Structures are given as structure tokens and as C-alpha cells.
Amino acid sequence: MGVLHNKHIPPQVFRSSESQRRETLQGLVDSDGYIENGTSRVEICFTSERLAVDTVELIRTLGLYPRLSQGDATLNGRIVGTRYRIVFTAYEGDHVSRLPRKAERLKPKGKSAPYSQVRTIVGIKRVEPALVTHIRVSSTGGTYLAGEGLVPVCDYT
After folding, report:
1. Residue 83 to residue 60: CA distance in whole angstroms
2. b/e for 104-129, b at 16 or more Cβ within 10 A?
3. Residue of 23, 18, 16, 5 lying closest to 96 (CA atoms)
4. Left, alpha or beta for 18 (phi > 0: left; psi -120 to 50: alpha)?
5. Per-residue pLDDT reduced to its tens digit, 110-123
């Protein structure tokens, strides 16, 4: 897989089954993650930018909404490099950890989605008419994921 001394998530993982992707995330959360008690806030930190970016994509493929930030990685008060922090909200049914001590910190999903899982319109801009290609998908409900953020889109026909 070529990950020795080159930490990353192999491309085939992103197109594997949901259970395989979820198991990959569980391994990352169980080894490098933290789940805040009672808030369902999950945090994973890495010093590898590529692994952090890959992990963000993996989390998105599971329908979750990660945020990535970077800062100083410190050891005994001394800066030793860059730390990449991924934060997202998960609930009991999301199964992001196999370790009971971590999994039990996840709370049940409420009736409304938290703001961190809501997409908002921030602007509308008029554009000139142009020819477009219509995409038709065969998935149940006519939905598919588009763009880097894997935004759910509906095929309205």
C-alpha cells in the first residue's frame, strides 16, 4: 500500500464500501483521536498534512462535516513542527470508535442538526445564460455527491 514512511490513506479506500471506510476512520479515531464527553465533538490530530487532508476526505465520504485547522505541534513546550487538527460532530449511530471508553462519550442524535452539519447560502449572483449538461443518476432518490466537499445534490428531472 506504500504507507510506510509516507502516511496517507490509499486512494482505493475512498471508493471502498461504507463499512470499510468506517473501520478505517475507527482506527484513526481510536489511535489518534479524542471524543469530548457529552458533546459528541471528535478531534483527531496529525503532524502529516497529507494524512490530515486524506482523513478529512474520508470523513466526508461518511456524511460527516469535518473542519481542518493547523497550528504549532509542541513537545515539552518546544515547537517541533506543524499540527493538523480535524474536528467534527458524531453521534452514537455514526460508530466512529470501537473503543468502549471513547464510543460511550458519543451522545444520541437530537431532533435537529447542529449548525456544524448545516450548509448555508452565503450569496446569490446572477450569471449569463449558458449551455449546461444535465446529469442523470440512477441512485435511489436521485442524489449524488458533488465537489471537493462531497455536497449531496439531487437530480431533479
Report:
1. 20
2. ebbeebeeeeeeeeeeeeeeeeeeee
3. 23
4. alpha
5. 776 666 566 667 78
